[in-house]
Amino acid sequence: MQPYLLELYGDPHAYLIAGLSAAIVAGAQMLGGVLAVRIRGLFGHRVSALIAMAGGSAITIGVLALAASFWAVVGLAVVWALLFSATMPIRQAFLNDMIPSQQRATLSFDSLMSSAGGVWGQPVLGRAADAWGYAPTYAVSAGIAALASRPRPIAAMDRARRGPGDERRARAAAGVRHACPNRGSGCDVLSRPPIWAAHVDRRHHMSVHEKEPNMDMPPIVSPSEWEAARAQLLVKEKELTRARDALAAQRRRMPRMAVEKDYRFEGPDGPASLLDLFAGRRQLIVYRFFFELGVAGWPESGCHGCSMVADQVAHLAHLNARDTTLVFVSRAPQADIERWKARMGWQIPWYTLTDDFDADFGVDQLHGTNAFLRDGDQLFRTYFINSRGDEAMGSTWSYLDITALGRQEKWEASPDGYPQTPPYQWWNLHDEYDEPTVFEDALSEASASQRGSRST
Q1: pLDDT, tens only, 291-330
Q2: pTM of the prediction?
Q3: Which of 23, 124, 199, 331 is the most buried (most CB within 10 A)?
Q4: Bridge partners for 372 per DSSP
Q5: Any idea what the CATH number is for the domain that residue 347 is in?
Q6: Domain-terminating residue out of 190, 216, 233
Q7: C-beta of residue 305 within 8 angstroms of C-beta of residue 194
Q8: Which of 308, 326, 328, 329 has its CA nearest to residue 317?
Q9: How far is CA 430 from CA 23, 317, 392, 406, in A?
Q10: How many domains in the chain?
């Protein structure tokens, strides 16, 4: 393309212009890769996205052949670069679903086919440019691209597999929409479904097991051999536990971010501020649950992945005993939230978002868990968990480990002056905490059998 650009520019030795043009096109390719997910979200089916974007590339090359202006050709080259680079991850994901896992080498296969096209295509197009000039050569390229983007062969490939060559369509065929909270961001570009993805058809799982009946299971051993193997793994288990404790200690040393805006919510008792959500306690954990217009099942149900998180939340009395409040927030009105909570049997305090809290704290497009600390009326953001990090949330310990004060037990490596009590001293039955922050009876004879020696 560079010789063609220099020809249009009128100076065959303007190498700076050629280099700048190449840099602009390269930047467009980078941008296309970044925007691939959002571009994919514009289409209901992945196959449709592939056909449309390949066709768009062919049209762009065809128009480029007719352009006679230097800047027009540069602009068209930018459009082509965007489409070409955005198509790559979608095509690779499509191939990833078309090929069985045991035969899969998607990226290598995709690169092989692209390279093979270059081996025969570039010499042919180069010869055409020598014989006819650049513009006719681009017209030939447009024709080749148009042939490659014909809908029927691509659709036939998808039908031949009879599998989830298009994830959204497979889910739709099963009667389940993609429970993707960011509504149209093309989350199925990636091969691994995110935590909030909807369930897949049970029949598809059965077909997978029918095709792969022989599992590579570990050997059967004697009890002593099993204990020896377990002892080896226990070393790594302990290392993981220590690493998790060390990470929690680093979280407690994270700098705080002051919350300057006066965020407003609607609760079961009416309007509420972010400060009100603390319910008088020192720490607040806020989980963004996707229950609103646009989520699969609305208004009868909410995001399936978010619902799994809610199902595994421990009794809140234990968090409250550590001066910590957990709440959920959604865009749904309170009447819908109360009906949804009653159906699912959840007792979690739940508020309606009314402003840009979700956008400001990284949960407008994806679920996530924010931790806050209160010093009087001054509020601070102290930590944030999202994506697969939310999978581990639910237990009292996992929530306390992301807070600024931690579990508040003496064994923890916390900064000087942090509130701490002996391990086990504050533990209680959830219906026997006289007050959420009063610790009692754990050192009595009645609880001696539960104390034992400290083990981490």
Answers
A1: 999 999 999 999 999 999 999 999 999 999 999 999 999 9
A2: 0.54
A3: 331
A4: 284, 381
A5: 3.40.30.10
A6: 190
A7: yes
A8: 326
A9: 63, 5, 22, 20
A10: 2
